[in-house]
Amino acid sequence: EQLARERLDYQNQIRQAESRIQQLEGQCTGLTEQLQTTQQALQQEQQLRQQAAVENA
Questions:
Q1: Residue 49's pLDDT band (boundaries 50, 70, 90)?
Q2: Confidence band, pLDDT 50/70/90 cuts, at residue 38
């Protein structure tokens, strides 16, 4: 009976860990999207600065 209880505890821990992994994967996806958006904005700003520097030269 104790073995059965330990097995159940173990299965619950596995379920919780899997749930946490899914949560973290979702966060990673969101952060990756934010990073890409930020990189694009930075690239555009760098291009605009270069254009302005050329026009002002």
A1: very high
A2: very high
**Token pair 């990673």 in the structure block, residue:** 28
Helix (H, G, I), strand (E, B) or coil at 1: coil
Q: Which two tokens stand for residue 47?
A: 């291009």
Q: Which token pair is 8?
A: 């159940």
User: What distance in Å separates the CA atoms of residue 27 and residue 20, rounded to the nearest whole number?
Assistant: 11
The CA distance from 51 to 43, in Å, is 12
27-49 burial: b if 16+ Cβ within 10 Å, else e: eeeeeeeeeeeeeeeeeeeeeee
pTM given for the model: 0.69
Element (H, E) at 46: helix 2-56
